[in-house]
Amino acid sequence: MSNAPAGTTFPQQAIDLVARVDQDRWGSVRPSPYETARVTSAAPWLPGEARRVGYLLDAQAPDGSWGDGPEPYRLLPTLSGVEAALAVLRRATVSGDVGARLAGAAARGLTALRALPPAGPWPDTAAAELLVPGLVSGVNEHLAHATAEAPGRFHGLTAADRLAIPGGYHEGAPAYVAARYEAVGALPVKLHHTFEGVAGHIPRSLVPDADGLLGSSPAATAAWGASTPAAVERAVAHLEPVALRYDGLFPEAAPIRVFERLWVAAALARAGLPAATLPTVRGWVDEIYDPEGVRGAPGLMTDADDTAMAVLVASLVGRPYGPEPLDAFHNGSHFDCYVGEDTGSVTANAHALQALVSCSQRLPAEGGTDDPRADKLCDWLVGQQRAEGYWPDKWHASPYYSTERCVRALAQHGGHQASASVAAAAAWTAETQRDDGSWGVWDGTAEETAYAVKILLSAAPSAPAPHQVRALGRAGAYLDAVADAGTRHPALWHDKTLYAPEAMIEAEILGAREMLRIRHL
User: pTM score, two decimals?
Assistant: First the structure.
């Protein structure tokens, strides 16, 4: 939560947060057990292995798993932790005591993996269909080596401990995907972020170049460095600054500067950006906005989500940029996140609708008119709503995030169909509040409570119903108590595993609390 002293006002907290984000070239996310384990496994040539091994040993949960969230979310990080522990044991680069601890960690991790539901359902995280079978194969290959060549070093682990492929995944998927792109003669940019999933299956001619972290991913960069000896020195140069920022460890993606700045600015703008922050935020927009589309981090594809947010924030802070960069992502009814996307995103489309409506409202004097795509997009979003009243999305574990985005966009667009959809979402939100005043998909959290507050305020911009007033009052009390306690934000955002973009979450909570204060709720 915020480090602001008690009694600090919203304007000062917003000014401090914007300044902190502006000064951080990498982004405020915690280290990732998955990503750190991948670097530990693939990059023995990178200084700092002892720090990473110690972190993995300390980060293992009592049940033997690694990672955040419910059991299904722990499949991938636990596979990553077990494989890394076995890889280090196989290299024989640790002392006897550390080796015994690693073997014990691997054994407990294997037990945790066998305790998972055999067929999921598994979360829709990035490239899990490639990463999971690849890691299972790696674990089993290490265990076969333990039986054949070094049983003592593995402290009793043998090939008999091998894992089965979890239900819903296919052992041959990484090789199949690699062969498909080998036939084409190029690896698409969308696979750079998860390059470690196919690195062992592609010919050297398909290994991409990397001017910085490959696909913004430390794990992908370590796999890239390991894939060709000539790349090792460059991989070290790309990885060491990230390790310096994150105390020798690695986050899910780096840098997240574009993503973080746009989401922070948009969250604070809804409550009212202090005038003192406008020069900084306008500078962000001028740097980020690109007529050919915006990418969330260096090495990623341009995408509709970041592009829409750049257009939206530009409109909110009075920069003279229009929605034209979104044209490349429109498919006739809505927007694809990126070329070659497999599953659509309601939050990316909600951001696009907000951007289109905001630009239409801002630009009439400059010759702008209503964008005809907005009506189609409104219809598409309404069609994605679940019967219960909420929307799910692939970029976040919580339906409160995606529902708040859709409600905000539809409320801005207006119309009978949009209003009915917003009312249904507000009813679902009010019905799902917890006894302590919070909301949450698994447990009550300040982040999700902030989204729920904004849903209810969007649904009743002038006069909330009495039951909504009571719900908002309880939510405000919960947010105040959690802020005073300094509670750590749970990881709810989807990448390869769950992560928590802390500055963005703080901006959402700060904005919600200020909106409640303004409304005297």
Answer: 0.94
